[in-house]
Every structure is written in C-alpha cells, then in structure tokens.
C-alpha cells in the first residue's frame, strides 16, 4: 500500500493538466499551477483552449479533463470525452431504398458466358432462375434473352429506419387517389345537374329555384366565413380545430383529485362523468357536472335534433344551413314535427277504425290498477334519497282551521302530562263541547286536589325506597364476599401451578446436563396436548425472568 501511494504521488507530480508526462514540477511551479487554476475558476484568467479553439470549462474535474496516457495529444483537450469518429456508426439516408422491379438497360442479343442457361441473364444461375423453364434454353438458341436484374444494395439502416413504414414510399402515388376522388365528385355534380334539368322539364321546379341551386353548388359556401366560439376553421385544409380553454378556468381534472373519481381523457380534454357524484347533490347546482350533463341539458338536445334534421334535409336535396339560417331551420323542423305527429295520429285512428279496440287504450294507468309502480327509490342509512325520486308525503289527514262544538282552537293546540287537548278550554276529550274559562278553572281545581292526595302516597313510597336500599346494600356485600373468595381460590391455584412449573424446570435442567446419547427416549417432548389454563399462564409469567429488570438478580 505504501509503494502504491508513493507511485501515485510521483505520477500526479509529473503529470500536467493536459494529461501528458513531463519533467518533475518544483514546489514553485506546482504553486503557480494551482494559483492559475483558481484564477481561471474565478474568471480573472482566460480559460484553456483545446486544439479546435473552444474554451475548456475550468470547473470540470481533473479526472474528466485529464486524458489517459494512451490517447494524450500533448495539449489541453476534451476530445477523449466526445464520441470518437472511428467508432460512430453511419447509416444510409431515408432516400436510399431497394430498387424493386427495375431491369438494367436493353437486353443482350447473344448469350454471354457465365449467364443463366434458361433466360440468359447475367445476375443469377439456372438453379436460381424464376422464369418458366424453357424446352430449349437461351444458351442454345439465343432467343428471348432477358435483361439483367438490378443488384440490390446492402443498406445499413438504423433502428428507426428498419421500422419506418413509409420508407421507400413515393408521395407522387397519392396524386392518383386525389384524381380518383375528384372524378367521383365531378360525376356527382353532373348527375345532380341532370336531375335538376329533368325536374325543371317536368314542371316540378321553377327556374328561380334552379338558378339558385346552380349559384350555390359549392357545399362548403359558408365554410370560409365560419367563426364560431371555441372553433378555428382553416378553409384550405377543411379542418376544424377546437381552441384551448381559457387560462382562468379551472381544469376539469382539478375538480376532484381522487384517482378513483371520474375519468379524464387528456387526448380529447373531456370528462364525461360527474366528478362530484359522491356528494349526492343536484348536478344543476354544481359548477361542473361532467360533459354528459352539459350535453343532455338545456337547449343542447334541441340543437342536436336540429342539426340532425339539417343533415337529413341535405340528403333529401333541401338546401338549409344551421349556422347561416337558424330561424328558417327552426321553423322547418317545427313544421316537420307537427306533420309527423299528425301523420302518426291519423295512422293510429285509421287502424282503430278498421280493427277496433279503442276501449283497451282508455284503461286507467297501471299505478291505479295495481296500486304499485316500478319506480325505483334507494335510501341511505340516514333516510336520505340516494337514487330515484321520493314519494310525496301528504301534509295532513285532517281538515285544517275548522273549529267544531264552539271551540276557538283546534285539537292538538294544548299539551299537558303526555296528553293533547284544546287550548281554549283545556279539555282532553276530542270532539267535546267547549266550556271556556270555566273548564280551565275546573281543570286547575282538580289538579290541586290530586296533589294533596299524592302527599300521603309519597310517605308510603319513602318507606318502600328505604327497604329497597337496604336490600341492595346487603346484595352488594354478599357479592363482594363472593369475589374475595374467588380471588383466594385463584391465588391458591396459581401457587400450586408455580410449584409444578418449578419442578418441571428443575427436571429440564437435569436432563440438559446429560449427554445426548444418554438422555431417555422422548425426554424433550412436551407433556400433554391441551392448552394451558389461566392459572398455569399466570404462574409462567410470574416465574419468567426479565433481563431488563434490575431486581431480577435478587429473586
């Protein structure tokens, strides 16, 4: 170890900062070298420059900046830390690909030595030839000699290049698809013009309608002017892009941070379920209740129905646009619904007139016939409604504010000693005739006389209470004596168990002193197969020696 330390110190002293071996530095040179390094780190001295003219960071540690002896260049450098050019793999570019199905120039007219005997190509032999085997090969008749195939290059592709699905694809081939769809669109317009001309000739359409249709041939005539809130339309690419939310709005995924709450789709920025479903609140009172709630509330449904009606109208060649002509669309949709409902009613009436059975449609509701309904209501433990709608409860089964028998208050307006009555006469008999103030006075007199009678009863009750206390005191004394006897009996059993435990420990010590070969058979086997009793467990705990107890040595 001492030799290793000395050699390392000599190596450090004889090595410059650039990693080259030089003559041994003196103390002054070593001190100047360290001062220069500190100045470079402080920024008062210029940094070192490598062979390419780039500055070397003075804060780079020495074990990184110092080049090994076998790659040292004799000057400061960090080239040994960069990828070496001779070890860098080069790959072919994306433009290089296999040339499939290409033949070399014009075919030869005479058979060449070393060519395929079957087809005359120079790039393969007869056993590798893919041409149909000829009865007389090209070697013997010099006829129909095939051109040479292009030798495929040995491409060196990277990891991504090997898995590039579009590698070798010619973008010009997509132009054929565009031309095909353009021809289809042109054919559709031609058929539409022919149909309009035929309807005009038959008198079904007027010339004004035809002229208007020809002017509005472009299906996307309003596309260039679309500027709806929350959308951005590009007329060149025909793509509608949703704008980002306002920065001041709370993000949907921040309403409820529970990972088991409503799912948030980050790709479409949508949260369809209600993030506050665990609160059992009305969704209309919440700040945000999910995209599905917004989609199915308010005028969203009517708007969706109008949009569907507009699409179906366009398919039936009715020119209507929901954004450009919303009022006309609403009127047309309303008129369509009225006609549809009228048609359904006429159809139903015609079936009833033809086959009968109108009396079966006039039966009462199923709830009235069966006195029950399939409406589902789920309650919590506290009686609150979790799902469904709670059945309405009748407010009262009696007529309100109806005074009978000369009473000036209703039954139940007076309460005394657990009984209801009338407040006007203090009567507890329902339906009785009102006695007014005289009734109140009679009630008060009878109550005073009842209190005098109860005084004699109270003296008898005191004697009974005194006897009961004496009996309960005697029972407590007997119970206490019984408990003391039980404690003495338990203590006697515990001492007996402790004596047995001590004998068992002495027996185990005697057995452990013997040699293993001299121990009796089954001497280490536990006695009995039953669980220990409470007295035995207490004896074990009392005799157990605890090492952390400072008084254990005095037992």
In short:
The chain is mainly α and 555 residues long. The chain is 40% helix and 3% strand. The protein has helices at 2-13, 27-42, 62-65, 138-141, 159-162, 174-202, 207-215, 291-295, 300-315, 326-355, 366-370, 436-513, 534-543, and strands spanning 231-234, 239-242, 378-379, 385-387, 414-416, 419-421.
Polypeptide structure, described:
- This protein has helices spanning 2-13, 27-42, 62-65, 138-141, 159-162, 174-202, 207-215, 291-295, 300-315, 326-355, 366-370, 436-513, 534-543, and strands at residues 231-234, 239-242, 378-379, 385-387, 414-416, 419-421.
- The chain has 555 residues and is mainly alpha-helical.
- It has a two-stranded antiparallel ribbon with strand order 1-2. It has a two-stranded antiparallel ribbon with strand order 3-4.
- The longest helix has 78 residues, at 436-513.
- Mean pLDDT is 79; it is low at 1-22 and 219-231.
**Biggest β-sheet: strands ordered side by side in the sheet:** 1-2
Shape: flat
The proportion of residues in beta strands is: under 5%
Percent helix among the residues? 40-55%
The total count of strands amounts to 6
What does the main sheet amount to? 2 strands, antiparallel
Q: What is the overall pLDDT average? A: 79
Structural class, by secondary structure, is: mainly alpha
Rg over CA atoms, rounded to whole Å, is 53 Å
- Element-level helix/strand string: HHHHHHHEEHHHHEEEEHH
Query: Alpha-carbon distance between the termini?
Result: 57 Å
By DSSP (H or I, 4+ residues per run), the number of helices equals 13
Low-confidence stretches: 1-22, 219-231
């Amino acid at each position: 170890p001492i030799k290793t330390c000395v050699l390392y110190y000599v190596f450090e002293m004889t090595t410059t900062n650039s990693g080259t071996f030089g003559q041994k530095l003196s103390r002054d040179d070593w001190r100047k070298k360290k001062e220069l390094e500190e100045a470079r780190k402080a920024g008062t001295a210029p940094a070192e420059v490598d062979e390419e003219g780039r500055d070397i960071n003075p804060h780079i540690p020495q074990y990184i900046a110092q080049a090994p002896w076998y790659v040292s260049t004799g000057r400061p450098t960090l080239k040994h830390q960069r990828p070496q050019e001779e070890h860098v793999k080069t790959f072919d570019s994306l433009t290089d690909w296999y040339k499939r199905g290409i033949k070399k120039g014009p075919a030869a007219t005479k058979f060449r030595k070393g060519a395929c005997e079957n087809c005359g190509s120079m790039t393969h032999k007869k056993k590798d030839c893919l041409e149909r085997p000829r009865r007389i090969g090209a070697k013997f008749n010099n006829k129909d000699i095939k051109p040479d195939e292009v030798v495929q290059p040995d491409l060196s592709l990277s990891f991504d290049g090997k898995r590039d699905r579009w590698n070798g694809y010619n973008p010009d081939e997509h132009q054929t698809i565009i031309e095909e769809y353009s021809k289809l669109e042109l054919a559709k317009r031609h058929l539409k013009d022919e149909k309009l001309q035929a309807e005009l000739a038959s008198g079904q359409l007027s010339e004004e309608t035809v002229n208007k249709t020809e002017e509005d041939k472009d299906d996307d005539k309003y596309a260039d002017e679309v500027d709806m809130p929350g959308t951005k339309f590009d007329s060149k690419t025909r793509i509608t892009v949703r704008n980002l939310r306002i920065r001041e709005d709370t993000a949907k995924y921040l309403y409820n941070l529970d990972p088991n709450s409503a799912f948030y789709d980050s790709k479409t920025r949508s949260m369809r379920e209600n993030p506050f479903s665990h609160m059992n609140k009305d969704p209309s009172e919440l700040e945000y209740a999910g995209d599905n709630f917004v989609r199915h509330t308010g005028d969203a449904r009517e708007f969706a129905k109008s949009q569907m009606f507009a699409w179906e109208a366009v398919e039936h060649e009715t020119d209507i646009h929901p954004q450009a002509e919303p009022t006309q669309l609403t009127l047309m949709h309303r008129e369509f619904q009225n006609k549809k409902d009228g048609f359904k009613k006429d159809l139903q009436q015609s079936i009833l007139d033809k086959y009968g059975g109108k009396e079966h449609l006039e039966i009462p509701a199923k709830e009235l016939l069966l006195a029950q309904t399939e409406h589902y209501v789920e309650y919590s433990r506290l009686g609150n409604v979790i799902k469904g709608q709670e059945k309405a409860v009748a407010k009262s089964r009696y007529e309100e504010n109806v005074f009978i028998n000369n009473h000036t208050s209703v039954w139940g307006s007076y309460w005394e000693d657990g009984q209801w009555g009338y407040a006007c006469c203090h009567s507890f008999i329902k339906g009785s005739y009102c006695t007014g103030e005289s009734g109140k006075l009679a009630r008060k007199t009878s109550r005073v006389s009842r209190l005098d009678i109860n005084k004699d009863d109270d003296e008898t009750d005191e004697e009974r209470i005194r006897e009961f206390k004496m009996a309960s005191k005697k029972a407590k004394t007997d119970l206490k004596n019984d408990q003391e006897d039980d404690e003495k009996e338990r203590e006697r059993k515990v001492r007996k168990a402790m004596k047995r435990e001590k004998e068992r420990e002495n027996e185990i010590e005697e057995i452990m002193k013997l040699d293993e070969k001299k121990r009796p058979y089954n001497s280490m086997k536990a006695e009995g197969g039953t669980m220990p009793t409470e007295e035995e467990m207490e004896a074990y705990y009392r005799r157990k020696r605890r090492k952390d107890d400072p008084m254990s040595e005095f037992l």
